[in-house]
Each structure stands twice: as structure tokens, then as C-alpha cells.
Amino acid sequence: MMPIMCFVYGMNFLDKTTLSYASIMGLETDLKLKGSEYQWLSSLFYFGYLAWEYPTSRLLQRLPLGKYSGACIIIWGTILSCFAAVHNFSGAVAIRFMLGVFEAAVTPGFALLTSQWYTKKEQGSRVGIWFSFNGWGQILGGLVAYGIAVGTQKHGSLVEPWKIIFLFTGLLTVCLGVIFLWIVPDNQLNARWLKKEDRLLAIARVQVNQQGIGNKHFKLYQVREALTDPMTWAFFLFALIGDIPNGGITNFFSQLVVSFGYTSEQSLLYAAPGGAVEVISLVASGYLGDRFGNRILFASFGLVCAMLGMILIVALPLSNNIGRLFGYYLTQAAATAFVALLSLISSNVAGYTKKTTFAALYLIGYCIGNIIAGPQTFRPKDAPRYVPAEITIIVCQGLCLMILVFVFWWYRRENARKALIRAGPEYVKLENQEWLDLTDRENHEFVYTL
User: Fold this and answer.
1) What domains are there in the chain, each with its CATH number?
2) Which residues form the Major facilitator superfamily (MFS) profile domain (predicted)?
3) What is the CB-side half-sphere exposure of residue 302 using CA atoms within 13 A?
């Protein structure tokens, strides 16, 4: 399952950022975009994501997990391909909004699949692996966009270059969606590629998670617990604040690299190594976090590197284009913290209704942060320096570091509290407690991962 999850997640990133490549390949001119219309197009994806995030989280619980996720992948690939037929701003608005609606299922769906199939000690590295394919998506996107831009300049084309890249990424996503639908089961019990006895073993190996393998019943008390859990709102604030920088850099990295003094074609190529930095930092952070039992600590290193990179972009003179480009590469390590908290949702939130609610709120924060970033950070009037956006990013990342410290402290405190309860003479463990769909607060055997 992991390879197809990785490829799909790479396309998840590439598909929503294809707009950035297209923006310097003639899209803005052909669609006659003016003012801040491009900035709003970048945000409209997240309006669709925001509108459908909680409903899709409920559908992921109620419907067959693998089938629903696969259907969403095929539909969003089809929608992205339709961008090649867009002729004006209003058409682009519709495509971007609906793309957000159907991509809203992939991250919470993959988090549920990870918690369903892997033990707590494996989840940090596994989430890091499939999320790292965002970086591979950036590398592929840069190379493909550069090849299309240079090739069409030399040999011409029947359609505009920006339309070709939408057709390429959209149709590739559809193909991957079909493969995903065939390979990924809804749970261990209907995995066609496992023998009957191996399906039971696959369930038994995750018994240690104290989370079961899923529950389709909606439990209102678990929603209430999610809404009163301080960690829900700590994670929400982290996603909101942390994704203001993410939204700015993700949607405007091509323009940012151009502002360093490179041509549009060079920016397509030179942005690609940033994807390699993201891949290395995510895989290393996930592995070391699980190896030493401290995901938050190693994720913090990536966030510090990203802050240093943005400080270089702000502090270095415009003439130092190599140094500022190196700073941009360092900013790509910021994803380690977001991914660490995403993996902690898999590991530290029990109760299926609570988990889907918690994940939905985390990703709603992600959407709001990206929406704020669109029209309010990299504004055309601030080019080529973009100082207000860059300072905003540094401040947001500093606040995120403070939230990570709070999350670490809270989980350590809760583990100590539960240890005292388990040590008490009146404590009795329930029979088959790990399969009862208890929340992490209800189950005193549940130990939080740091």
C-alpha cells in the first residue's frame, strides 16, 4: 500500500501547485487576470477544502475507507484536467474550488489508513515517508514544467504550454486513482492480497495501538471530548499559524525565485531542489523521531532550519541571488513540524469519531492559514523584495515553535497522570479494552507518543 499512497500524495501536492507553474507559463495573460485575481485563485482551492473537510471526514468514517478515497482521487484528477479548457477567471474559480473539495479527503484518509495498518512506533516514519512525496511532486513538477516551457519555445505546440501541464498532471492522477482503488482495501479484513490467516495477523499486530481498526458509528460524546481537549485547539492553532507561511511559499515559490533575479524558465528548474530538501528532512525527522521516541524534538529542528532560511532571504541583498536561493531551499524543511503533528493525530487520538473530528479541525486550521496567505502575503505591490510577507513568515514560525513546546509538555504530563492511575490499587483493566473504541482520555492504558 505504501508505494501507491506515496505516489498519490506526491500528485496531491503537484496538482494543487500546478497553478504556480502555470502562472509563469502564460496562464495569467491568457485568462486576463488582473489585480489580486491570481492570489484569490490560489486561495480558492482552500475555500473548497475548508467547506468540505468535516463532511469528508465523516464520510471517511461512514463509507468504505479505501473505495471513498480512491473515488475522490479519480474525480480530482478529472477536475484538474478540465483546467485546460478554462478561458476566464470565473471558470478557474470553479475548478480551483472543486479541486479543493475532492482533495480534502486525501490527508485525513491517509492518516486513518496509517493508524489502521501500522503500530505507534511505525506511524511517525510512515507518515513522514508518504508526506515526503510532496517534495518528489515538487521535483517532478519543476522538471516537467521546465521541459514543457523549453520544448514549446523551441518547437511550438498546438495548445498553450500551461494547458499541457494541467492535462499531464490531471490524467496522471486519474491513472493513479484507478490503481489506488484496486490495491488499497477498506481494512485488513478485505485486503485481497493477504491470505485469510495473514489478515488476522495484520489486525493482531496493531493491537498495541489501543485503537482498534475502525468504527462506523458516530458517537456524539467523542465529538464533545474532541472539542474540550486542549490538544485539539493547540493543533488547530499550529496548523492555522504554520500554514500562513506554507500557503505563501507553496503558491508563490515560482514568483519568489524569479524575484531572486532568475528567469521564469530558470525558476521552474531551480525550485526543484527545494523538493529534495523536503524529502530528506521529512524522512530523517520521521525515522529519528520514531527511533528515539521524540517526534516533536526532531520536527522542531526542521522548523528552525526554515526560519534560518527565511532570515537569509530577508537579510541578504538582492544581488546575492545564490544565497537567497539557498535560503529558499532551507524553508522547505518547515513541513517536518506539520507532519509530526499529523502523525501524532494517528498515534495519540483514540476513539474513531474523536479522531476524525480532531483531524478535521486540524485540517480546517490548515485551510484557514492557507486562505490568509493567498491574498495577504506575497502581494504584487511588495515585489521584488516581499519584505512584509517574509517577516510574517518568520513570526509565524516562531509562534509554532512555542506551540510545539506546549504540546510536548502536555503529553508528558498526561502520561505521568495515567501512570499514577494505573499504579493505583483500585485500577482494573477492562477485557479486550484495546478493541472497545475508547478515547485516549477514557483508556488509561493509552500512552501518548512524544
Assistant:
1) 2-435 (1.20.1250.20)
2) 1-415
3) 29
